[in-house]
Give the backbone structure.
Amino acid sequence: MKDFRGKIAVITGGGTGMGRELAKQLAAEGGHVAICDVSAEHMAETKALCEKGAPKGTRVTAHLCDVSDEKQVLAFRDAVKREHATDHVHLVFNNAGIAGGGSLFSDSREEWERTFGVCWYGVYYGTRAFLPLLVAAPEGHLVNTSSVNGFWASLGPGIPHTAYSAAKFAVKGFTEALINDLRVNAPHVAVSLVMPGHVGTSIVLNTPAVLGRPSPKEMTAEELRPVRERLAQRGLPVGALSDDQLRAGMQQMAEDFRDKAPLSAAAAATLILDGVRKGTWRILVGEDAKELDRMVRYAPERAYEPGFMEELRAKGHLDLPLTPGDE
Ligand SMILES: NC(=O)c1ccc[n+]([C@@H]2O[C@H](COP(=O)([O-])OP(=O)(O)OC[C@H]3O[C@@H](n4cnc5c(N)ncnc54)[C@H](O)[C@@H]3O)[C@@H](O)[C@H]2O)c1
């Protein structure tokens, strides 16, 4: 698909981050956009930003939908058909995601399954629901967001990261397998797999609300205790901090994840859309993602050893103390 003008694009998780930037850039080119999210407030901001930058006549619709609930995804699809008066769409970005569910030991099963539900079932239900609409278009493109954690199940030694990694590996396998399924059954529909490294978004700030957890600022002393233990286990110097200092520190780390990243959400969205235009099935987003891909392929046995992370950090990648999956 060489240009997006007049095309209809569906984006899950359009409230903030890469989903918002994809929506803005598509709308700026005159693409019609339907976003969904669990945050009405964030979607209203995205919609206003899209409309501000879009040519006249561009439609932008926003839909409340939890992508881990198939009924809600089907209702979202029906609303898109109705509000865009269409029986087809040209682009589907299964982008919504959250962190969390790191450990089978210290996190609840409920949280684990919530993270897996959003990151895997969200992509699966989104694909199932919208595939017939992509097939009904003269040309279509499905874009599923995985992560570097779709080929490297780690944030570094000492940080359990199981639910997110399991979901992102599933997204990668599913999306790669769809290449042949689509070539056989719907050759006018292309598919891409997006694997970002560290991108500056609100994912760490947004995750607690989606998991039904308090934000760092709202945590009680009791809720802070296990967090403090885990951070200490990871070698972070939290022992001498008061509860308020710990709350402020956690908030700061979540903001730093957004504000001190090597790549902005807008730059990431541009790379993703360039990949779609070129028909690339494998879109690695960021120099850290490319380096990790090289390193894991070159020496997979080393991928979970401390030396691997040291080498990655020595090259200037993934050097923030907290990344998604953390508190
Ligand atoms: N930021 C990174 O460094 C990074 C790295 C690799 C992969 N990713 C992936 O990129 C995608 C986009 O994330 P982002 O970094 O832009 O984060 P983000 O939090 O800024 O955006 C994700 C959006 O999805 C929404 N969302 C969460 N749960 C939802 C649900 N159940 N239903 C509908 N919407 C929901 C959030 O409200 C948010 O608006 C995610 O799949 C994420 O896992 C991000």
